[in-house]
Specification:
By secondary structure, the chain is mainly α. It has helices at 3-10, 24-30, 35-44, 50-56, 62-74, 96-99, 102-131; strands at 48-49, 78-83, 89-94.
């Protein structure tokens, strides 16, 4: 089946007007080395300050964290609240749109645990085989 036949057959059921999967925009929003980890940390503790995020996301750089937070904010997944105090205090938290992703994260937990167990098993086997 060609792409054109597929597109005609499936039509608007799973494709957007541009012919993309409707999940594509979400995947594009979450692309990047640190974005999912930032969202994960904000799921666990919200709100968080910049320094707290930097501490739990070692070895992230200030620039990488700033850029990722700006992109997440632009995509309306994270909100930045600045308090006019001295010293300046800024907190980051999930928006409603960001909280809507929580079921997706929860659904991925079993798969993540399975992959972790598989990797651990492989490493243990490698250690055992290496001893003989």
């Amino acid at each position: 089946m060609t792409y054109e036949e597929f597109k005609e057959k499936v039509g608007s059921v799973i494709l957007t007007g541009e012919g993309n999967c409707p999940v594509t925009p979400v995947v594009q929003m979450l692309q990047g080395k640190w974005k999912l980890q930032i969202l994960y940390e904000l799921c666990i503790k919200c709100p968080m300050r910049f320094g707290e995020l930097k501490k739990v996301l070692k070895p992230i750089t200030n620039t990488a964290l700033t850029n990722a937070l700006k992109e997440l904010e632009a995509d309306e997944l994270v909100q930045r609240i600045q308090y006019n105090e001295m010293p300046l205090r800024v907190e980051y938290s999930l928006t409603e749109k960001g909280r809507d992703l929580l079921p997706v994260f929860y659904a991925e937990i079993p798969m993540g645990n399975e992959i972790y167990t598989m990797i651990l098993t492989i490493l243990i086997c490698m250690i055992i085989v290496g001893r003989h």
